[in-house]
Structure formats: structure tokens, C-alpha cells
User: What shape does this take?
Amino acid sequence: MRQGTDRAVSELEKPAYHHGDLRAALLDAALALLAEGQEPSLRAVARRAGVSPMAPYRHYADREALLAAVALRGIEGLKVALEAADAAAAPGEAVIAQAVAYVRYACDHPVLFRLMFGPARPTVEHGICAAAQDVKDVLLTRLAREAPDRFTPDFALGCWSTIHGLAQLVIEGLLAETDPDPLGSGMVERAVRAMLGCPESRV
Amino acid sequence: MRQGTDRAVSELEKPAYHHGDLRAALLDAALALLAEGQEPSLRAVARRAGVSPMAPYRHYADREALLAAVALRGIEGLKVALEAADAAAAPGEAVIAQAVAYVRYACDHPVLFRLMFGPARPTVEHGICAAAQDVKDVLLTRLAREAPDRFTPDFALGCWSTIHGLAQLVIEGLLAETDPDPLGSGMVERAVRAMLGCPESRV
DNA sequence: CGCGAATGTTTACGATGCAAACATGGCGAT
DNA sequence: ATCGCCATGTTTGCATCGTAAACATTCGCG
Assistant: This one.
């Protein structure tokens, strides 16, 4: 696929027949549409990438395959966000920080998030599952250190569920009438603390 | 092909021009499609109800309105399931029983469940939110009795999130590689117990 | 230089959601 | 009983979507 001599991307070069790296461009286009809040149709993605509606099929089996690739990237992004939050957290507060980051990521990219954890069963299914496990593991690792006494696989699953459920409830607006801004108001954080049984709220 | 689609109440009259109670028939048709695991298109619902593709618009503003009505009914069904589980539970085990019932409901009606708590924002949005609160309240009420010491609004939200997140993870297959049958294996129950800190497993 | 394979394009088909115009017939006012 | 209103259904039409099939273009290797 890739070769040494790269006439890869020069600015004033008109769109050649061969796009150079459509595969990545399609991914970016889909991500961009997602970021704008719209669910990306295959045709819209192609349009945005400046190619014909059928072009994507040279790189992805079907719409679902493209979306799955996007979802994978989104999951990786979530993992990165969790790791960053974990690293930046005060001692003993890393789990809470990860939880908040998780929900914030969902709020910042609601459509993407739905794609990531919704019916993304298609082609790359296994890839998605594995990536999701990676995400869980980031949380799990920190959990094992901050709460070694209570820690069990079941407890880890419970924690993940709590955080994931919270994210779902928030982005679907199910908490809107209870609290218009569950993240900003600290409700999310308090709910996680309540479940973990660590009420130190230290402003 | 026109067949005598299941008319619930009437006897042998031919499909009259006026359907009698299309509104309800459409709901049932959508529910039936959902039960068969397919996402109901407006046209498919109309087909199943034995009317023309445009007929539903006399009763629902658009596809989303129909789906929202279906979602509402699904949420009511969940509430009923929770109440039943609560009533049948052994003393002190009602919260766990509700949690398991919640996840089981999701597993039994995955497409419906996604509809209920997915982007069901449209028309009846408020109705959906309120109904969801009703569901939460069933859990919340029992929670206040079984765990009066830890009980706070934040704790209640946390519990709901845990259960809801568990349901999401299970129906999307995110736990499939960890455990192919999280409900049957008891993993769901154990995760909830771990979060609640009540490890009595009393087979 | 030439040719095969990779990559894009065009055309076409069936499905979908919905707008607009038309048809039917239940039912209250006369 | 009759008539006419209008709620309820139907037909037609259009834009969009996913994707199959056939065609066009160019890359890279012999």
C-alpha cells in the first residue's frame, strides 16, 4: 500500500483521480460530521471527502464497516482521555477523575459515543469489544490500586457500569429535568462517590 | 398481498376504509416488529397494520413520534417488570431483584430498550423523561427502605446508573468476551452486589 | 512501453421518510 | 332521510440512502 516516493499531499495540486489516502480522509470526514452532531451517511462522508458516493466501498465493505472504524477511533480517544485524567488527578482521586472524564467525553461527543457503544456489532465487532476492554482496563488498573481491599472483577464491572450508565443517562438527557447540567453541577461526581463510598468531597 | 392481518377485536368484516383504531394498531405493529428484532420503519409498520404508507401520519406527526409512543409503552413495561420483581423478592433482596429484572428486560427486548433510552428525544420527549423517572422511582423507593443509612439522591442516581449501564453493556455485547451470558451466570447480580456492598449471595 | 490491479466514477435499483392532492365514508345539522 | 363537513386513508411524487454492476483512470511493475 505504502511506498517510499510520496507525492502525498501538496497543497495546490488539484484533486487527482487517485485521492492518495482516501481511507484516512473518509475517517476524518466521518469524524467531522459526527463532531457537527449529524449521523454520517455513507454518501455524506463521500461528499465531504470530495469523492463519488461509491468510492468508500473501495476501502470499507459497507457503511457499517466505516462506522465501526470510526467507533474504534472514538474508543481509542476515550482511552486516551481516561489516561490523561488519571495522570493529572490528585492522589486517591484518580478513579473519580476518570469517571468524570468518561462522562465528559460522552457529553463532548454524544453522537460518536452512541456509535462507539451502540449497535456497532458489524464487521470489526471483535475489535470494538477488545478496545472497550482496553478502556475498562484503564479504569480497572487504577481501581486495583486505589481500592485494593474491595477490588474484585465483579466490583470492577460494577464501577464501569456505573460510569458508563451515567454517561448514557446524561447524553440522552434522561437527567435533564433533575439537573440540566449534571456534569457541571457535580452531580455526576457525587453519584460516583456515593457508589464508591468515598464521600470526601474536598471541594 | 393482502391478508387478514390480525385484527384483535372484531369479527369477520373486511378491512374497512376506516380502520377503527389505527393508532393502537400501529403501536402494536411496531411492537411486533421490534419483538422480531427489526428496527421498525414507518412503512413496515404501516404494512404490518395493513394500511398505506402514509396512513400513520394521520395519527403521528412523523416517524419519531410513533417511535416515541412505542418507547413510552416500553418504559411502562419496564416499570411493571420492576414492580413485579420487587413484589416477588425475598426480604432484603428486592433491590437486587429489581436490578436483575431491569437487565433481563433489556436482554429480552434489546431493540425496544435501545429505542426507550436512545435518541428518543423527539416529540414526546418530556413524556419519556417523566416515564424514565417513574422507573427510577420504583427503584428509589425500595432503595430508601433497604438501605436507609446510605440513601441519598446521589446514591439513588448511582444505583440507577449502575443497573442501566449494566443493561447497556450486556445488550450491546460488550461483555460477551468476558462472559457469554452475564445474566445467567450471575455476573450481573454479583456486580450489583459488589457495588452495593452486600455480598450475601445466599444462592 | 505495456498491461494488470488498484482505485474512482457512473448508472441504476429498491427502500425509506415525507409533502401534496385526492378519495371515502361516518355523522351531525337540516 | 338527505346533505355536507371533515377525520381518516390512499395515491403520487420527490429527495435521500445503501449498494450492486459496469465502466474509466491511473499506479507501478514487468
Notes: Residues 63-88 of chain B form the longest helix (26 residues).
